[in-house]
């Protein structure tokens, strides 16, 4: 049997922690929005979509009203398209009543450089003109490259640039967890 690698990711949050954080965020949304009547949740694929659906369910539990939820694919708005292999397009699904004049809450799993959220804002701009745009993330790991901050954060998790943060959700990964790992060292001559 192999010994565990020192580079193995370790869980820093488990399922109950994630559930608790989403419940807290849902209450914060209701308090800040004075209900959730005008709120539309748009998850950023992949795991942001699952988190948005979970938040919508919690908001419905709290308010007694369904909250529109959809997804926003940002692939074609990324600024790193030419830097790596082609990414598969995901689906953009905007709820039937649209986003005009609504409070759009973008939902993602990890906030890092801010470039994903910048791309989401560009994609949203092509769809409509919401009254306000807010951001909810499960984990804020720091290292922002753009002046973007989340309105709702499940957990601030200070990291080094050598570390990785991976969110696992039951819908995609079979379990709920946030894993903190270390990037493998690049071969000599590469970065």
From TrEMBL:
Family affiliation: Belongs to the purine/pyrimidine phosphoribosyltransferase family. PyrR subfamily.
Ranges of residues in domain Phosphoribosyltransferase: 13-155
Known function: Regulates the transcription of the pyrimidine nucleotide (pyr) operon in response to exogenous pyrimidines. Also displays a weak uracil phosphoribosyltransferase activity which is not physiologically significant.
Swiss-Prot/TrEMBL keywords: Glycosyltransferase, Transcription, Transcription regulation, Transferase
Catalytic activity from the UniProt record: UMP + diphosphate = 5-phospho-alpha-D-ribose 1-diphosphate + uracil
The keyword Transcription regulation is assigned to this record: yes
Gene3D superfamilies cross-referenced by the UniProt entry: 3.40.50.2020
GO molecular function: uracil phosphoribosyltransferase activity
Family matches, as NCBIfam families: PRK05205.1-3, PRK05205.1-5
Residue span of motif PRPP-binding: 104-116
Record has RNA-binding as a keyword: no
Source species, domain of life: Bacteria
GO BP terms in the entry: regulation of DNA-templated transcription
InterPro entries for the chain: PRTase-like, PRTase_dom, PyrR, PyrR_bifunctional
Name assigned to this protein: Bifunctional protein PyrR
One protein family per Pfam: Pribosyltran
CDD domains in the record: PRTases_typeI
PANTHER family per record: BIFUNCTIONAL PROTEIN PYRR
EC code(s) of this entry: 2.4.2.9
